[in-house]
Write a structure and sequence with these properties.
The chain has helices spanning 18-28, 47-54, 72-79, 90-97, 104-111, 124-128, 130-141, 167-178, 213-224, 252-259, 282-290, 304-310, 328-338, 379-392, and strands at 5-10, 32-37, 82-88, 116-120, 145-146, 150-153, 159-163, 188-193, 198-199, 205-206, 228-233, 245-248, 268-271, 278-280, 298-300, 317-324, 343-348, 360-366, 371-378. It is an alpha/beta fold. It has 2 domains: 5-178, Rossmann fold (3-Layer(aba) Sandwich); 188-392, CoaB-like (Rossmann fold).
């Protein structure tokens, strides 16, 4: 999705400062970002800030062409792959709902034919006013996407709905709208992510270093590709993925109980969770309460991947993950055969940038026919490539 052109319209509101982070993040990911501002918006953030972050001029006056021969609002309208208004005030929402074009932002917006995203942010009572709600509904009727406001303490001192969503939430919605290759449309995809925890006693537990980042990236990528996604996640610190059915679990047993009943409904199952292989026996937990030693008696947890492989129905695709420290390919090939998977996604935990708690990964996809080394990519890019290679056909 690099080199896509995103036009961001910033209207007047204290939350305009959050858009600086959004513009910066998108620019770093190689998007072409253009910012248009209302005059009210310049009272909160200076145009120079957005020009520096985006590397593009911020044009406020529709008659200001800076010696250029093209008409800026028409040029940008044609170039835009997505037009976002954030924050969208009650005033700007009313204007775009009724086709009023009286400045650079609204004129360009009206001329644009690309997908459009409105992100409202304002006082709760203004947002809930029937006039604003009618205007938002009119925007929806014209095919515009609305990203719902957050709930919380507002700058005006009120509490309620009207907060601008965080930049990462807006960015997630932008990427969803920009991803037009819906090759998983109509498919039901189950993904597991994160670590499981096996209680030793009320204080201690057995777990691993998984953060869930890879599984969450897979869930976003599958959602963007049009799938109906269920994400069964072990305990982690990541925000829920919008537009995905979230199921939160703690132990391997809870993950098994969440996953197995869903198998018959799924077209694709991707098990990226780092499930703890062992848990303390009940008798061992009782002993710990009576003495200070940790001489644990362990028992194996259910092998969820193997269980799914045994019960896999015709046409289902099962993708497992293998995190190895030696003989990566050979170990993954054995796992592929033993657990009746269609693909194994393997990585070497000793390799820098390919382990837990990082934003990159280096995986090799192994099937019965071949091996495909994806190289070092961001986890977001890795997720997209995994889905395309294994499921696009």
């Amino acid at each position: 999705m690099s080199k896509k052109c995103i036009v961001i319209g910033v209207s007047g509101g204290i939350s305009a400062y959050k858009i600086c982070s959004l513009v910066s993040s998108l620019k770093k990911q190689d998007y072409e970002v253009h910012v248009l501002m209302t005059k009210s918006a310049t009272q909160f953030v200076g145009p120079m800030t957005f020009e520096t972050l985006s590397g593009e001029d911020v044009i406020l006056d529709m008659f200001e062409i800076n010696g250029k021969t093209h008409v800026p609002h028409i040029t940008l309208a044609k170039k835009a792959d997505l037009f976002v208004i954030a924050p969208a005030s009650a005033d700007i929402i009313a204007k775009v709902a009724h086709g009023i074009a009286d400045d650079m932002l609204t004129t360009t917006f009206l001329a644009a034919t690309c997908p459009k995203l409105i992100v409202p942010a304002m006082n709760t009572h203004m947002l809930e006013n029937p006039i604003t709600q009618d205007n938002l509904e009119k925007c929806r009727s014209y095919g515009m996407e609305i990203l719902e406001s957050g709930v919380g303490y507002l700058a005006c001192g009120d509490s309620g709905k009207g907060r601008l969503p965080e930049p990462n939430e807006i960015e997630d919605k932008i990427k969803d709208l920009l991803y037009t290759d819906k090759f998983l449309e109509g498919k039901k995809v189950l993904i597991t992510a994160g670590p499981t925890q096996e209680a030793i006693d009320p204080v201690r537990y057995i777990s691993n270093h998984s953060t869930g980042k890879m599984g969450y990236a897979l869930a976003r990528a599958a959602r963007n590709a049009g799938a109906e996604v269920t994400l069964v996640a072990g305990k982690n610190h990541l925000a829920d993925v919008p537009g995905v059915n979230m199921v939160h679990v703690v132990s391997a047993e809870e993950m098994k109980d969440a996953v197995l009943p869903l198998q018959k409904k799924m077209d694709v199952m991707i098990l990226s969770a780092a499930v703890a292989d062992f848990r303390p026996k009940t008798i061992a937990r009782e002993k710990i309460h009576k003495n200070s030693g940790l001489g644990l008696e362990l028992e194996r947890t259910t092998d969820i991947l193997a269980t799914l492989g045994e019960k896999k129905k015709k046409g289902q695709v099962l993708i497992g993950f293998a995190m190895e420290t030696e003989n990566m390919v050979a170990s993954a090939q054995k796992k592929l055969e033993k657990k009746n998977c269609d693909f194994i996604v393997a990585n070497d935990l000793r390799e820098e940038g390919a382990g837990f708690a990082v934003d990159t990964n280096h995986v090799t996809i192994i099937s019965k026919k071949e091996e495909r080394d994806l190289g070092l990519l961001s986890k977001e890019e890795t997720a997209e490539e995994i889905l395309k290679y294994c499921l696009k056909g």
